[in-house]
Phosphoribosyl-AMP cyclohydrolase
Amino acid sequence: MSEQWLEQIKWNADGLVPAIAQDHQTGRVLMVAWMNAEALSLTVQENRAIYFSRSRQKLWRKGEESGHVQQLHDIRLDCDDDVILLSVEQLGGIACHTGRENCFYKTLKEGEWVAVEPVLKDPKTIYEK
């Protein structure tokens, strides 16, 4: 398969594009991460979410340490060609490194961010290996 489709994407100055991971059944947003061209190409090839970690400056196969892999169901590009939307099956039901279903677990209440989503699994048990 030709990778000409990658050229249509408007990458930022660092060669990255934001990627939203959404549960393919519920539509719930699980997380937002970044992808470079290699990560996006590998995501399509391997049929699983692969991101680019800005903090570690390397590819990050979602679930490589936690086992919480994101199986790809669909991939879309927004109207401005600068945001990727991944429709995924979140294996293990946990997308967040805090042990929660998704990364958007805080809500603004009376001027403070309050955690409103439960921890499903202690992160210490997820990442201790």
Summary: Strands lie at 17-23, 29-35, 50-53, 58-61, 70-77, 84-90, 106-109, 112-115. The first strand starts at residue 17 and ends at 23. The mean pLDDT is 95.
